Amino acid sequence: MIKNHDRKFKLGMHSYTLHLSGFGESWGFQEYGEHHSFEQVATFKDLVDIAVQVGLDVLHITLVDIQNDTSDEHLAECRKIAEEAGIELELNVSFNAPSDPRVNCTVEESLHIAHKLGCNLVKYSTDVEHPEKSSHSCLAPSVMTQLIDIYNQFEAQIGLIEEYGMKIAIENHCDLFADEVIWLVDKLNHPLIGACCDTINSLMVMEGIADCVRKMAPYCYCVHFCDNRVFADPDGTHSLGTAIGQGNVDCRAIMDILREEAPEGLDTIDLEIELPLSGHSLEEGREMELQGLRESVEYMYKELGIGFNAAKIYGESNYFLNK
Hints:
Blueprint lengths: L9 E5 L29 H11 L3 E4 L10 H14 L2 E7 L12 H11 L3 E5 L15 H15 L2 H7 L2 E5 L6 H11 L4 E6 L10 H8 L3 E6 L2 E6 L2 E6 L9 H11 L6 E4 L10 H23 L6 H4 L3 H4 L2
Parallel strand pairs: 1-2, 1-10, 2-3, 3-4, 4-5, 5-6, 6-7, 7-10
Antiparallel strand pairs: 8-9
Helix pairs in contact: 1-2, 4-6, 6-7
């Protein structure tokens, strides 16, 4: 049996999982030099209701999910909706999102917003740019210049981070190698500042998934838990998102690493799925996202032992029965 086999986590969802319904953010359109946004067809209350219905404990949200309305009145209303439903909130922001600038925010602004929402964690995408030949660009001089600027942005807000008791998680968001995230966290050297490990983003900088997770786990205060199917066809090699447990990622092995190596500050695992839309209408894609969410929650609770509210829906977890 692995060390910390019985360690439990809350189960969260990155709202990007439902991006075709206009939640989270729009992503990937930077390849076409475009900003893009899907129509938001549901409200923040609808999002919270979905979280309750599928058995989540936490919602990992963006500013888009609250309609970019950061007035005190609206933030208080959203906080009340979540608290009354028994759903905790985490905030996800970017500095310079390449596809959807609606999610952009400064460190100071994000801390105030998260505090008013009742969050205990803010996750940051740094949007660092690497040289075109990115495979060997980890900690390259042009990258280090950007990392130093990001360090200064966080360092300037240490007092506010401490005042709010807010956990900070810096992500390997398709733009940072694991070692670059670790460099930032080490240099900031503060107990409230850690990493967010996205378990699939390492592929974008050509890092191995297992190696990335093992490196980042000791620093993790947040995890975006993903699964992908990797395959080749005459057009090349592709990586496409799936519901959790339905791709080529060994999800149990990833959780074993996190249970053994992650600090106590990691108390939530946020699932994130991105299903291929090609060949489907937008309406069909929205239904597929909801179905993929349901299947992912059930799998993560039953087979990986993640989540608390899910027990009300799915009964006992096979993970804890099959030690």
